[in-house]
Amino acid sequence: HPQWAYKRVAGTGQVKHNDIVVFNFPAGDTVALNYQQTDFYSLAYGEGKRVYSHAINMDSLTREQQQIVFDLYYNAGRKQILSNLKEYGKVVHRPVDRRENYVKRCIGLPGDTLQIIQRAIYLNGLKQDDPENLQFFYRVQATGKPITQEFFRELGLSNEDTQSYQAGDVEFYLPLTKKAHDALLGRKDLVTAISVIELGNDGLYPPNLHTNWTV
């Protein structure tokens, strides 16, 4: 099949604060075909931690010592994946047009100082206004009374958003806007408490450093 070489075209403008931007997910260049929803690097670190399942207190290690541990995880996970092609599938490098497109809002530019403190964004020391439909991930404690899909739709939730819920559950997890949070909390017949989930360090960049960051 005829192919054109990839060529980067010069931009036609300058990205500004709060512009919508589209880009390829950087770590999505390599995947195991049976686990395409997870980039190869995250998969390798995760599998390596399963191989070396003994808990390590990362807070007691220097950054250099942490790097040694994470290299151990990565190499063990990589070996596990490459030696089990039946389970993981062939590991392939994806061309640019086969990588995930991420659509995000630009909130920081080169030279800016960006902080996320207690789920609020601070740019150059100034707290930024939250977007109207900003969502956080919550743990919902329920009464066990079934919640209908119709009610979930009223909250603006999709089937994917509610996949952790089964009728009769007394605890499950949902992404909620402030409006949806307040509406659900107001249904005392359905829920008893809603608390925000503090996501830990493991899913945050960089994957080979213990930062104690949360979002």
TrEMBL record:
Keywords: Hydrolase
Any Pfam family the entry gives: Peptidase_S26
First-tier enzyme category under EC: hydrolase
Molecular function GO labels: serine-type endopeptidase activity; signal peptidase activity
SUPFAM superfamilies: LexA/Signal peptidase (SSF51306)
EC number: 3.4.21.89
Domain Peptidase S26, residue spans: 12-132
UniProt xrefs under InterPro entries: LexA/Signal_pep-like_sf (IPR036286), Peptidase_S26 (IPR019533)
Protein name per Swiss-Prot or TrEMBL: Signal peptidase I
Species of the source: termite gut metagenome
